[in-house]
Structures are given as C-alpha cells and as structure tokens.
Amino acid sequence: MRVLRPMSNPTATIVFLHGGGLILGNQDTGIGEAIDWVEKLAVVVVSIDYRLAPGARYAEIVDDCLEGLVWTAQHARDWGAQRKPLVLAGMSAGGGLAVATAIRALEVGAPPVAGQLLLSPMLDDRTDATVQPHGGELPIWDGISNETGWSAALGARRRVKREVTPARATDLEGLPSTYLEVGSVDLFLREDLLFAQRLIDSGVSVECHVWPGAMHGFSTIAPDARLSRRAREARRTWLEHLVSR
User: What are the beta bridge partners of residue 177?
Assistant: First the structure.
C-alpha cells in the first residue's frame, strides 16, 4: 500500500483502487489524481496494490481490496482520522472493485463507507466487442481488451456467480453515496448508466456525469484539456461536500 498524507489535519481517508483492466498496474498507477486530493482537500489516501489476474481470480482481488479497507479503518488513528469519513475511490477496474468492496463490506460488517467515487468503472463482465457507443473503434480500452481482462479474472469459461461482479449484484441497498462519471465514447457508458439508475432505484444518493466526447481515461491522457479540468473540479467538489458533512 502507498499512504499519502496531507501537511494539515486530515478531513477524511480515501482508499484508492487503481485501474488497469484487472491485469495491469500497481499502487502508483493513476496516483496523480490522488495526490491532487491530498493537496487540495487535506485527505489521507491509501492506495492498494491488489493482486492481478490471471494470477488471482476476481473474488480474490476483491478480498485484497477489502483487507486494505479494513486495515485502513484500523489505522486511521495513526494519522488522526479515526472519526473522519472513509471513502472508496477507483478508476476503471478500480472503480468496479470499489463497488465490489463496498458490497462485500456490507455483507461482512466491515467499517462503514461514507461514499464511493467511481471514475469510468468496469462493472459488467458481459460487455463485449459488440458494444460500440459511437459506432466506431474505441481508443484505449475496447471490447477485445475488456474480454481479455474479464476472462483473466473469471476464467476462460466465465462461470461466474451472480453476486460476484458489480453489475450482477442483485441487492444494492445500503451502498454509500456515489459519484459516478463516464465519457460518452467510453466502452463502459451503457453499463455505467444502467448501474447508476439501479443505485438510484435502490435509494442510493447518486451524482452522475457523462462527459461529452470523452474516451476512457481522458483526464489522465489529456490532463490539461478543458474537459479534464472540469471533470477534476467536479470530483473535488463532490468529495469536499462529502467530507464536510
């Protein structure tokens, strides 16, 4: 794990789960966004280096993330945040893992999570190469990439229990307040919007953004673009409101 601490008293602790399609990355992948939260919002960020597929199956990866969440809650006193909000955040595969971890935390009675920040989350193993939001080839992460990642995590035969992946979960009640964003030319557009609606139907408070013309990972690939700056500001505003309640 990588622990990032602000210079001032912390306002919250964020457990950050990196992207990489379940097959790539480590605790430093995408950490620039988290550093921004530490500097501007005075939060502590704990970035988890979970195991990757195919060496680990999806349920085992979620186990790692849950273990990181529990460890973080147990050690919040070390940085003066024991009574401050605990938030899950994740990009892409990490966004899906954040949801899966929040669901598992409810099931096992783990420390309560105040919110989940989901950036283009990878939620549904049924999304495949036939899904093309804008009718053409998708940059960065397409259907073939998605099939590769999910097959590595679930096994080639994809024999998956209904409750394993976030989009297959049947009960979303009790999940924390959610920020969810996705680009309009992102492979995950459809699954993310369907999931946002299911959260709303389950009584979860949801703020959802669809960024026009944005591809997967847009704010990391083009951080200085006007749309990327708007997206980062929207995320910070949501987090600031959450931690100041």
Answer: 115
